[in-house]
Every structure is written in structure tokens, then in C-alpha cells.
Amino acid sequence: MSVVKDVPKQLLINGQWVDAKSGKTFEVPNPATGEAVAAVADGGAEDARSAIRSAHEAFKSWSRTSPIERSRYLEKAFKLMSDRRDELGQLITFENGKPVEEAKKEVAFAVGYFDWFAGEARRIYGELIPSNVATRRLWMIRQPVGVVAAITPWNFPATMITRKIAPALAAGCTVVLKPAEQTPLTALAIAKILQDVGLPPGVLNVVTNLYPEEIGQEFLVNPLVRKVAFTGSTEVGKLLMRGAADQLKRVSLELGGNAPFIVFEDADFDAAVEGAVGIKYLRVAGQSCICANRIYVHESIADRFTQAFVEKVKAIKVGSGFEPDVIVGPLINKDTLDKVSGLVQAAVKQGAKVATGGGPLKEGAFAKGYFYAPTVLLNVTDDMGVSREEIFGPVAPILTFQTEQEVVERANKTNYGLASYLFTKDLGRVFRIAEALEYGLVGVNDAAGYTHETPFGGFKESGLGREGGKEGIDEYTEVKSIVVNLPK
Ligand code: ADP
Fold it and tell me: Which atom of ligand 1 is found nearest the CA of 179?
């Protein structure tokens, strides 16, 4: 566990690693065994205040650095984090549970945001606007919004951080990061990387804690915080937005999803099966907001699709993320395991049929962890909880449909609107459906999800604002119009 030993366990405030003012720490469990991996500082409101003050002080000089200077720090972070990919991957597996190969892939993706925004830092363009008066000049510039409070979840403990701090730092903002209580170590290791590349003190601060409300509240009431960038549940996102209203803080929210995965009769069959397995089971055991939540298959190919899909799901190896060939690791904690179990049990009661899996795994090596068998449910209807709610586990409900119009209506009948997928070779249908789906991301014959180059975010209750792409940096800037009358 030397990768764990090497990570700082304290708060990072103004470039110093410090204990929580209370002196308290909390334990980080390994979800595969339930055993503590490490103890880290349990910060509170006072620590958050110090971190915010330090970010505010640092903003004065950081916001005035040249874009190319900021870009160089991000390039160095890209390089150093890439060098530490294997260690970071193992760290993620210890605290998050996902298989170590998957974790390393996450790190490789996460560093890409340093790379992308190192470039974007140099393209925060303004505009010279044609004036309405001959002796007046108008121009527009973009300036950093100020101190950013970033709150991130545990499912992609590296990516969710870099996707926020890279554009924030690139834009000239300073940051106080509060990572998820389940995965503080990855956050601390990333902060150490930024410290090691010489990022000035106070530009990035990290406050870890066990109960998020207290620090969350400080972020909302402290007037020095100008923006809250959040990824997590829709419930907490709404709470933060309400809290941000008092001071009209900027918010960007990337929240829950309920992705439809639609397979038409003319789809490339193997690609559709492969894609569905990938986006359901290969991303943190289904605990991702862009995971397929409802798989709609055209009735004419439903039996064939189900058979091929179930065969692949049965071959998935479950276990600790450190075991070779494991595809599905443990769920993050007992609450998640109970929620997934409850959704499946309720569906079965309402008439769903279990094609494979169907319950938690408890025997032998699974005894202490939070393992759930990769599950496929048939005879599922739109009104069941598994269709309406975000499952966040390795459970695939299969539903059938007859017409294009019907499936689009059913796919859109949710308050969520993050990711969606469709598989077809019909070009007309691609455009009709991609335009009709009320989702921020539409994968057409593609189940790989978003990339650094594309803006990512949700429609409806899946969020506000976009991360990644060129839009991702706009979220960290304010637009200023400057009107100048020329001297006579
Ligand atoms: P998840 O179900 O993915 O854990 P949450 O929305 O509960 O989603 O958590 C995402 C992030 O939000 C985590 O960093 C968590 O600590 C934080 N969080 C949860 N509740 C609050 C809150 N009341 N105020 C601020 N942050 C919170």
C-alpha cells in the first residue's frame, strides 16, 4: 500500500499541508473489503474559511498571470500526472473499488483535461464590436469569475476534479476543492501533483471532510466564493442552487441521468451488443451518470439481442479491482447496494424476469464488500422504478418498442437529460432521433461517452452549464463590455 502511504492526508491550504482545526480525521474504507485504507483530515467550516481566504489572496496575482504562463503549469501537470498514472490508478481502486485497469484508463482520460485546457487558456478571446457611434469604441473581454468552490463525487475521483480545476485555473480562477468523502486520496494526490509542478500557494486548496454539509454551507454563505462547480446527485445540486441564490453565485451543475440506449432493427448488431455491455457494466460497475439505464430494443430483434447480451453479461468476472480480469468491482457502499437490491426486487414483484444475476454476492471473497451480480431484467415496463430512477449499479433493464416515434417519446419521458444512445444505420433516422432526444449527449453508434473536445452537460434536471469543449472555460469567466468615447 505504498501508493497510499505516499499521499498527503492533510488539508492543503495556502500551499501548506495542515491538520483540520478540530484535529479530527476520518477513515477511508476500501469498498471491496470494508477495511480502512487510510485516515485523512476531517475539515470543517473554519478550515473552509481559511482555504477560501487563501484562494482569495492568491486570486489577486493568479488572475493577472498571462494565459501562456497558466498554460505552462497545466502542461506540466499533464506530464507529471501522466507519469504517476499507475500509482493513481491503484489509489483509485483502493478507495473507489473499480478494477485497476479501468482506473488507469480513468487517469489517462482525466489528465486529458489538463492538456485540453492548457490549449484553451490561450484562446479566451474577447471581441471588438462594431460601434453605433463613430467616435465610440466597444469591446468585450472575458475575465476570471473569482474564487471557485468545486465539489466532486466519488465515481470518477480523478476526472471529475480535473474537468473542473483545469478550466478554472486556465481561466485565471483560484479553487477550493471539496472532494467526495469516499475518495479523498485521489484528490489529495492530484493536489500534490499541482504542488510539485510549482503552482503558487493558494491557487488550489483542498478541504476533505466526512460530512459535506458544513463545508458546503460555508461555500454558499461566504461572499468571497463567486462560483460553485458541482457534480453529484440532482437532489444535492438543487440544494446548492437554492443556497447559491442568496448571493447569486454562479453555479454549474452536472447531475444525475437516466440514459436510454435504443437499438433499431437495422443496427450493427454486434456493435450494439458490445456498446450496451460497455456502457452498462464497464464504467464503475454501472455507477456512472451516463450509464445506459433503459435499454430499448426493437421487438423484431429483441430475442436475439437479449440472448447475445445475456451471454456476454454472464461472462463478466466480478471481484476486487486488484484481481486480474475483473470487470465489475464492488459498489461504493452499503446504501448503494441496498438501493440497487431494492429496485431489482420491486421490479421482480411487478413482473420483471431475471435473465441473469438478480442479487448481492455475499459468499467467500465477497463477504465483506458491496458486490452485486451483473444483472439483466426482462419484461420491464416504463413505470417500474428501474426505468424511472437512476439505477447506479450493474443492472440492465431491457424494454422493447415498435416504432421510432414511440421510442423517442418513451426515451424523453423523464426529468433527466444527460446522455442517450442510439444504434441504427439509417441516416435519416440518425438525424431525426438525435435532434428529437432531449439529452445533452447523443451517442450514435457510439457508447464511449463524451470527450475533452465536446461540451458535456445536461438538459432538464440533469444540470446547468457545460464542462469540456470550448464552452467548459466560459463557465469560469465573466463577460465585460467596455465602452470608450474617443477624446475629441
Ligand atoms: P452521490 O450520490 O454521488 O454520492 P452526492 O450528491 O451525495 O452524490 O455527492 C456528491 C458530492 O456532493 C460529494 O462530494 C458530497 O460530499 C457532496 N455533498 C453531498 N451533500 C452535500 C451538501 N449538502 N452540501 C455540499 N456538498 C454535498
Answer: 14
Question: Does 17 map to a domain?
Answer: yes
> What is the 463 CA–ligand 1 centroid distance (Å)?
15
Do 338 and 192 have their domain in common?
A: no
* In the predicted structure, residue 1 carries a pLDDT above the cut 70: no
Count helices and strands in the chain by DSSP H and E runs = 16, 22
Burial class of 133 by CB neighbour count within 10 A (0 to 12, 13 to 18, 19+): exposed
Q: What does the alpha-carbon distance between residue 445 and residue 263 come to, in Å, rounded to a whole number? A: 9
- Which residue type does 205 have? N
Domain assignment present for 457: no
Over its C-alpha atoms, the chain yields an Rg (Å, rounded) of 23
Cβ-in-10-Å burial (0-12, 13-18, 19+) of 266 comes to middle
State which ligand 1 atom lies nearest to the alpha carbon of 178: 14
For residues 247 and 348, state if they share a domain.
no
Q: To the nearest 10°, the Cα dihedral for 359, 360, 366, 369?
A: 160
Q: 235 and 275 share a domain?
A: no
Which residue in this structure is represented by grid cell 460555508? Answer: 218
Residue 488 CB partners (closer than 8 Å, separation 6+)? 135
Residues contacting ligand 1 via CB (< 6 Å): 151-153, 180-181, 212-213, 216, 232-233, 236, 239
137 has which bridge partners?
A: 484
**Best CA proximity match to 266, nearest among 446, 426, 399:** 426
User: For residues 16 and 53, what is the distance between their CA atoms, to the nearest angstrom?
Assistant: 14
Helix pair angle (213-221, 45-62), 10° resolution: 40
Distance 267 CA to ligand 1 centre (A): 38
Q: What is the pTM for the complete model shown?
A: 0.98
pLDDT, one tens digit per residue, over 302-357 is 999 999 999 999 999 999 999 999 999 999 999 999 999 999 999 999 999 999 99
- Reading the block at residue 367, the C-alpha cell is 463477504
Q: What does the pLDDT look like over 363-400, one tens digit per residue?
A: 999 999 999 999 999 999 999 999 999 999 999 999 99
Q: What is the CATH number of the domain that holds 265?
A: 3.40.309.10
Query: Residue 390's domain spans which residues?
Result: 259-451
Is 340 part of a structural domain of the chain?
yes
pLDDT above 90: residue 449: no
289 is a catalytic site residue? yes
Total number of domains in the chain: 2
Ligand 1 centroid, distance to 485 Cα (angstroms): 49
- H or E stretch including 347? helix 334-349
Q: Report the 10 Å Cβ neighbour count for 402.
A: 10
In 389-443, which ranges are continuous DSSP H helix? 404-412, 427-436
Backbone phi and psi for residue 332, each to the nearest 5 degrees, phi listed first: -70, -35
Cβ atoms of 424 and 434 closer than 8 Å: no
- Are 379 and 270 in a shared domain? yes
